[in-house]
């Protein structure tokens, strides 16, 4: 009889929701997922798809901050999808679980197969994604679960962004977080599907190179690309998050498209 995989239960948004995650292996959610979730903004029953959701961190963070949002988590790994289901079953997440559904699905599917897997055409107001962004040859790992979450394959952004374009409603928003090295591939994949691309470089400290980019785009828009001011995480002499970043990380603020950051009344 095989042992049950080890796991942890971790608090996010200062205890507003909890996540069941693998212990000592696989991908463990952190700041990337919280920044991605902060990019979702809207009122009412906003329908959000989280592609490559893992245990559900980004999608749950959206549901925790937006009390009427309906979130679908799409994850190819059966084991990580099961962690997401365990997450939704936690009593601490009871207030959110009724608005979040897990789908075990390959987000690179096309056409009828994609729809059958629950990735329904023209169904969502917002799609978020945190795709694998380590080149396979650069970052080998004996941890198969982590490899699925972290290893990029050729054409990945084209495949994932194609799916986002299919499942978003006209005028819907795509948001993603990636490494700066992928910027050209992301812009090319948006192609004629998306316009109004907004890119925010994320820096650990002022004067250092960006280590992430936040990208958003609108389905069917013909607006031009814009480069937004940098988002800096720490003061030069500190490891603590700057106030805005701390608010984004803990669900007290959103980072909407091309506008003033909105802070929640929590």
Automatic annotation (TrEMBL):
PANTHER family the UniProt entry points to: TRNA1(VAL) (ADENINE(37)-N6)-METHYLTRANSFERASE (PTHR47739:SF1)
Protein known as: Methyltransferase
Organism: Martelella lutilitoris
Pfam families named among the record's database cross-references: MTS (PF05175)
Xref: InterPro entries: SAM-dependent_MTases_sf, Small_mtfrase_dom, tRNA_Adenine-N(6)_MTase
Transmembrane segments: none
Keyword S-adenosyl-L-methionine found: yes
Gene Ontology MF terms in the entry: methyltransferase activity
Gene Ontology biological process terms in this record: methylation
Keywords: Methyltransferase, S-adenosyl-L-methionine, Transferase
Domain Methyltransferase small: 35-181
């Amino acid at each position: 009889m095989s042992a049950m995989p080890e796991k942890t239960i971790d608090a996010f948004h200062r205890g507003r929701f909890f996540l069941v995650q693998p212990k000592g292996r696989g991908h463990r959610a952190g700041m990337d997922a919280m920044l991605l979730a902060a990019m979702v903004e809207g009122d009412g029953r906003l329908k959000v798809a989280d592609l490559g959701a893992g245990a559900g961190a980004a999608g749950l963070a959206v549901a925790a901050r937006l009390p009427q949002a309906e979130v679908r988590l799409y994850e190819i790994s059966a084991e990580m999808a099961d962690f997401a289901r365990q997450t939704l079953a936690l009593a601490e997440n009871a207030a959110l679980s009724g608005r979040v559904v897990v789908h075990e699905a390959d987000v690179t599917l096309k056409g009828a197969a994609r729809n059958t897997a629950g990735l329904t055409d023209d169904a969502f107001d917002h799609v978020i994604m945190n795709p694998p962004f380590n080149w396979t040859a650069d970052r080998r790992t004996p941890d198969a679960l982590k490899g699925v979450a972290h290893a990029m394959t050729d054409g990945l952004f084209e495949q994932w962004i194609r799916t986002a374009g299919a499942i978003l409603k006209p005028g819907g928003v795509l948001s993603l977080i990636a490494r700066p090295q992928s910027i050209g591939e992301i812009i090319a994949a948006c192609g004629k599907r998306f316009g109004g691309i907004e890119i925010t470089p994320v820096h650990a400290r002022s004067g250092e190179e960006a280590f992430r980019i936040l990208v958003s785009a609108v389905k069917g828009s013909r607006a031009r690309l814009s480069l937004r001011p940098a988002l800096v995480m720490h003061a030069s002499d500190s490891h603590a998050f700057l106030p805005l970043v701390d608010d984004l990380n803990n669900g007290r603020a959103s980072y909407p498209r091309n506008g003033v950051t909105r802070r929640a009344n929590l």
